Each structure stands twice: as structure tokens, then as C-alpha cells.
């Protein structure tokens, strides 16, 4: 129970503000404006690239993966229809943009999978930037190559948008119409939609360094008349930076279209709070469960066996995290269990081997987003439900992206081991 409560205390702010930011971005029309801008810039001739970039921009800015699915799908559906690409490839394309490299590989992403390791390894969310960039490029290039290969195979077989699916009456009607991708306002306003997202990134980067400089000896609540309690800023500065950056982003997003947000603000915030509570309780319970597992006598045997099998802590951390993420169907849940049980051992091992904690952070974060997207994963189920497709029709492509993401973890390990890239 103490571990579970400690997890909620540390990360609830990030879950809550992330959910509210995503909802405000949706309600203000920012997501729609960004989508239309990217569609107009790249066009339907590069439908897959357009969808991937749209998902990547939104998730890297801190928008929830679930919000991204709902925001991107209408545009993906129209682009694939215009390009006559099989609809069954949409889930894999959205997954590549939203569930992979911008979730945990790119340095600076405020997604929770990149925030959790900061408190265990004393890092920030920009840990191992070059390693993260190399991995992100690998995932993006390999993923797009795979999807393009699938598109070409479908084209050779004469498969088009509607091949192999039964369209509903509403979808049949949509085929006869064009989704309006024209600008809702001036070009300047369309580009202003990117401002809240940029502010989150810039504020986060600045505060990641500034907070440590402001409070080099920790933050003492006695100074403001509260009970004696000192916060270790070195361990929590990344969380503070992300939280404050998201607050700035929320204010900027509301300012983008205040009237539109105001009309549905109460219901939107209530939904965000409910969603964040569910998410943080789910992850916290798994973290607490990991602490219980670590206390069991049998765990020492398993831990010893894993240590003998995978003597390199990077490989050990990658395998353990991605397996647990696959079992739980949750990236944050699998990572929480792994770090709850093994973080002390990993820190001791990387210290002994001279491995920077930033590298361990990046490897564990990326591994959590590997095998988590198995069929029972909540994001996968939501993605298929939103697109109106089944596991039989589309999961093969999602799984292929999952394999590519998992391989990228070991590409990163090799890049550090052979070339010392951090």
C-alpha cells in the first residue's frame, strides 16, 4: 500500500494535467486545426506519412494517446479513401504515429512512459537524446517502409479502401462526400494552433534545468509556513517541469478559442478527471503489486536467474520491462512493476559497469512501449473500436509495428554498447 500511495503522490499531477490538456486541445479545435494544416501541406498522395506525422505531433506535445486516436481517425479515414488505400491499414498507421517513437523514444516527450523513470534514475525527460533520436528514426523509417510495402501488395492484388470490410450506411454516405479539410479561419490562426504545443515543449525544456538551479538543496516547506517536509528536487524536478509546462499549455489552448472551450469546459474537465483517476489507479495498483512481488521469497530466485541469463542490465531491463508490459497490456503498468521490483538492482549494476543512468532511463522507457500493444491492450481495443475494424482485419499490422518498436530497443542498446552513443 505505501508503494501504491507513493506512486499516486508522485505521478497523479502528470496524469491529471495530461488528461485535461488533451481534452482542452480537442475542445478548442486545436487538434482539428493542426490536422487540417498537415493534410493541406502534405496531401492525400502521402496519406500514410500524413497520418503518422499528425499522430506524432499530437502525442509528442502531451496529448493523450486515446484523444489522438479520436482526433486523427476522421482525417485518416478520408485520406485513405481518397488514395484508395485499404481501410484495414489505418489502425497500424495510427499506431505508428501515436503509440511508438513519440511515446517514449523521442527526448522530451511528456508522455507518462517517459516521466516515470525520472524518479528512479534521477534523470529528466530529455535523457539520452541521441540514443532516443536514433531509435525514433529507426522506428519511423522501418514502420513507414513496412506500411508502404503492405500498401503496394494490396494495390497489386487490386485491394482498395473498401476491400474486405462491410461499410455501414453512414460510411457509405461518407464515401460520396468529402471531409472538409479547408481552413476554419485565416492561415495565421491555423498556425497559431501549434503555439500551445510549442509552449509545452519549450517550458518543459527550460524548467527541467531551471528548477534544479532554483532549489539546489531541495525545497523546504518550512520556508512557506507549512509542516517540516523537504522535497528531493533532484528526483522530482522532471515531474514539476512537465506539470508546469502542461499548465502553460492548458492556458494557451483555452486562449485559442475561449468561447468554444467555455461551453463544454465543465463536462470536459470532469471527463478528464475521471479518466486520469482510472489511469493513475491502474498504474499505481500495478506498481504496488510489483512491490509485493519483490518482497516474496521466490522473487529472489527469479531475479537471480534473470541476472545470470541477462548479465547486461540494459538487456535485463529491456526484456523484463517489455515482458511485463505485454503481460499487463500496459506500458506504464509493466514499467511500474519492473522498476518497483528491480530499480535498486539496476542502479547498482549500471554504477558498477559505468553505464549512465540516462541510458537506462531511455532503454526501460522504450521497452515499456514494445510488447505492451498485444491484443488485450486498452489502446489497441480502443483504436479498433474507433475505426470500426476487428483484430482479424487489422491487428497483424499493429503487431508488426509492435515488433519493430521492440527491435528498436535492442538497436539502441547496440548503439550505446558499440559506439558509446548517449
UniProtKB/TrEMBL annotation:
Give TM regions.
51-76, 88-106, 126-147, 238-256, 287-306, 318-343, 398-421
List the record's Gene Ontology CC terms alphabetically.
Answer: plasma membrane
List the Gene Ontology MF annotations in alphabetical order: gluconate transmembrane transporter activity
The answer to keyword Coiled coil applying to this record is no
* This protein's UniProt keywords: Membrane, Transmembrane, Transmembrane helix
Q: Output the Pfam families linked to this UniProt entry.
A: GntP_permease
InterPro entries according to UniProt? Glcn_transporter (IPR003474)
On whether DNA damage is a keyword of this UniProt record, the answer is no
Q: What is this protein called?
A: Transporter
